[in-house]
From TrEMBL:
Range within the parent protein: 1 to 262 of 525
TM regions (residue ranges): none
Protein name: EAL domain-containing protein
Top-level taxon of origin: Bacteria
Domain EAL, residue spans: 7-260
Amino acid sequence: MELMNQSVHLESELKKALAGNEFRLFYQPKVNLSTGKIEGMEALIRWEHPEKGLIPPAEFIPIAEESGLIIPMGEWVLRNACLQTKEWIESGFSPLVMSVNLSVRQLYQPNLVEAVEQILKETQLAPEYLELEITESMMVDKNLVIEVIKELRTLGVQMSLDDFGTGYSSLHYLNEFQIDSIKIDQSFIRNCTSNSYNSSIVKMIIEMAHRLNLKIVAEGVETKEELIFLQKNSCNQGQGYLFSRPLPAEEISKRILEIEEI
Ligand code: C2E
Ligand code: CA
Ligand code: CA
Ligand code: CA
């Protein structure tokens, strides 16, 4: 009962937060591991609560999902991420692909493709600068997801499979879903230099991605040793605290120069 009250309370707080503009986007760079250049950013939502401070997505996304509030929240994320990308490109920071996370409910929303198309038009961002990240756990209705991915790609948007290795990981997916890239889950990157199981898994996933002509991204890169391991094994991109934590747009611009020195 107590828990239920809490979540009802949070839900009404979330509604107010959306109306009151309390959400913020942080950005985390995706770095090309052979050149060291930033090629993309991932938008990650934060809730700037007037009393409680910065609240991470894990604490409110599930409730936004359950209540359906994720739909307007997701559109807010898309719109703002596209606007920020446009701004960065216009200031000379290019090429830059912006990755936005989709939630299950968004993926199954009947007008997702129209909503994405509308936001691209409204923000005047060329579709090739947008990438949508989905996870294997979202593949409940396979045929529907195949269709949605196809339509999104027809718009010109790129598709990425996030948290790879943690879901059902049917290898059929990689063939049936027309994705452009895979992100190796951070749990495998953790200790991949000292743990031989993780090291084998990471090598195998990279190798597989190359054979399937998919771009391969490692998330959660925290140490120089992990970076060297990934470079040795020809991983295309990396993302993680070693390069930068997710930061507000203003601070990212400052980090850009420092990252190129790692
Ligand atoms: P994700 O998409 O797998 O994002 C990666 C998470 O790992 C982020 O947590 C990021 O801050 C964190 N991270 C990045 N590099 C490192 C590292 O080197 N070490 C460690 N320990 N962590 C690292 P965050 O921002 O708290 O987001 C958590 C999850 O919330 C995301 O996982 C994503 O599933 C969801 N999320 C975030 N923003 C959005 C959004 O706008 N929409 C939706 N639907 N989901 C979102
Ligand atoms: Ca993600
Ligand atoms: Ca992930
Ligand atoms: Ca995740």
